[in-house]
Amino acid sequence: DIVMTQSPDSLAVSLGERATITCQSSQSLLYSSNNKNYLAWYQQRPGLPPKLLMYWASTRESGVPDRFSGGGTGTDFTLTISSLQAEDVALYYCQQYYSDPWTFGQGTKVEIK
Amino acid sequence: QVQLHQRGAGLLKPAKTLSLTCAVSDGSFSDYFWSWIRQSPGKGLEWIGDIVHRGSTNYNPSLKSRVTISIDTSKYEFYLKLKSVTAADTGTYYCARGKRLAEWSGDFIQYYFFGSDVWGQGTPVAVSS
């Protein structure tokens, strides 16, 4: 199985400041035939199911604010919140779908400083 | 906007079978994958498996011997059965819709999952004697 490792485990950022989460995979998620990275990001607010934020590492899901951006390629990826808002307090997960079983990172908790 | 609504028993004794149902509000089965995912404090998020409208399934090898996912398109529902449960199966179970990319590979169309965009509300499951 592909192991997904996120860092940090938790992050406290002031309102309006930038938050960056990293996700590393145990093998490359870049599929050479279509040049796509098989990685998604999710946000999970307390008591709710995860919500898809990003797929193909950097494509925003419909309705996701543009302060969220995804980057990286191969084995190293980032999710950035450019200007943290109160409603962004949540757990964030990366997920690889390069090879099954699809696997998730352990999660990063984002809080307000 | 499609909604997924889960139902099923959330308290089980060890060695019993967990049975959950996920109802899809618009019956849009043919264009997506239909998944079950669970979440526990110890293991985090874990993909259990998925099914497509024709009934083909794909399971997590770690659970494959105990899992059955099935679908009834006439009822707009898909199902999870997990047999011989133990305390390690305690957690919140979600059904989810998986986005599907279709690409030609030679003479065949291959379908690729690329994220779960709609989720059920979750069913807390506790296994205890």
Structural write-up:
- The complex is a heterodimer of chains A (113) and B (129).
- Chain A has 113 residues and is mainly β.
- Chain A contains no helices and 13 strands.
- Chain A has strands at 4-7, 10-13, 19-25, 30-31, 36-37, 39-44, 51-55, 59-60, 68-73, 76-81, 90-96, 103-104, 108-112.
- In chain A, strands 2, 6, 7, 8, 11, 12 and 13 form a seven-stranded mixed sheet that branches.
- In chain A, a hairpin with a 6-residue loop joins strand 11 and strand 12 (103-104).
- With 129 residues, chain B is mainly beta.
- In chain B, strands 2, 4, 5, 6, 9, 10 and 11 form a seven-stranded mixed sheet that branches. In chain B, strands 1-3-8-7 form a four-stranded antiparallel sheet, with no helix packed on it.
- In chain B, strand 4 and strand 5 form a beta hairpin.
- Chain B is globular.
- Chain A binds chain B through residues 34, 38, 40, 42, 49-52, 55-56, 61, 93, 95, 97, 100-107, and chain B through 44-47, 58, 60-62, 94, 96, 99, 103, 112-117, 119-122.
Q: Oligomer, anyone?
A: heterodimer
What is the overall shape of chain A? globular
Number of helices of chain A: 0
Low-confidence stretches of chain B: none
From N to C, what is the helix and strand string of chain B? EEEEEEEEEEE
What percentage of residues of chain A falls in helices of 4 or more residues?
under 10%
What is the rounded distance between the termini of chain B? 40 Å
The outline of chain B comes out as globular
Helix content of chain B: under 10%
Largest sheet composition of chain A:
7 strands, mixed
Report the span from N to C terminus of chain A: 36 Å
Q: What is the residue-mean pLDDT of chain B, rounded to a whole number?
A: 94
Low-confidence stretches of chain A are none
What is the average of the pLDDT values of chain A? 97
